[in-house]
Amino acid sequence: MHELSITEHLLEDCLREAQKQNASRIRVIRLCIGELRGIVPDCIQIYLDMLAEGTIAEGARIESETLPVKVRCLDCGQDGEIIPHHLECPHCGSLRLKLLSGKEFYIKSLEVDINGDQSTSSSNGLE
Amino acid sequence: MEIKVLHQVMDWNEDVSEEVKGTLAGHRICMINVMGSPGAGKTTMITSLIEQLRGTFRVGVIEGDIAGQVDAERIASLGVPAVQLNTDGACHIEAMSIQHILPELPLEDLDVIFVENIGNLVCPAEFRIGESLRITILSIPEGDDKVEKYPLMFTDTDCLVLNKYDMLPYFDFDEERVLANYGTVNPGAPLFRISSRTGDGVEELAGFISEQIRNAQS
Questions:
Q1: Each residue of B94-105: pLDDT tens digit?
Q2: B6: which chain A residues are within 8 Å (Cβ-Cβ)?
Q3: Predicted ipTM?
Q4: Quick check: A87 and B185 CB within 8 A?
Q5: Do the strands A105-114 and A23-34 form a parallel or antiparallel pair, or are they unpaired?
Q6: Is the dihedral of CA B15, B20, B24, B29 positive or negative?
Q7: Extended beta strands in B50-200, E state
Q8: Contact check, Cβ <8 Å, A107/B183
């Protein structure tokens, strides 16, 4: 349930970015989430549906890309992808690993409608 | 159309965390974020550390809890400044909550503040709160699969404490598995084996913490 406060701030960030681009509507929010993080995209969607009501992000869809956990084995030297629930080298089975990635959490991009008519861009949902 | 953003989602909390860190550095205070499951022994470990440290350092405590005053009263009964931070149902403490509650402690008269986070292995790990040291506590009865199940809690910490270590003979707890997994997600980070009940290992942990407090003072 920590997704609630995260989603509040995520929405603010997205509205700010959309305003910079003079967007009239946010359709899709694309997130990248490392598999080691305890962030549930479905929860973010539920909170967003609630929080975005009345803003230009109302109805926006969360698309989340899961970034795998990558490790380097300290015994066989090879790199590989593993699942967090099974922390061993996929090549030699060693438990001595170095973590390369898997903790990411960022907004990758937004899919927006751009309103060409500047006179109506005041209704950007940030008031 | 698509707009590229590449914005770190957690920056809002990280920014406040840095401000808190700045405030504490101004007072030369070391803040320690204690995280672990409900029942892992966070409060008891803090009380036994207070006994070890209070001769040398001035200690304060922020007790995080979803509701209630029980833990803060337990700490206050030891005669150290303690404030209760109720999150009203939220599963973690954020940097902003610490920023709001810090003025309630006598910052001029403290060297170290322990923050007891909400009992939970998931959410607290996502939020920095301006601490200079993070301690994750795992007790033997919880089981040896926790590092694999909740990796972030063990990745983003500065040390792991195995509590209730005197219980080891009574549980099927594969310590080697925990050590190997911890070594993978957090290479080189220290580990302490303690029993707050018998006092075993607490002195060594207190020694490590004393070093961190002195670092914050220098």
A1: 999 999 999 999
A2: 106-109
A3: 0.78
A4: yes
A5: antiparallel
A6: negative
A7: 59-65, 82-86, 112-116, 133-139, 159-163, 191-193
A8: no
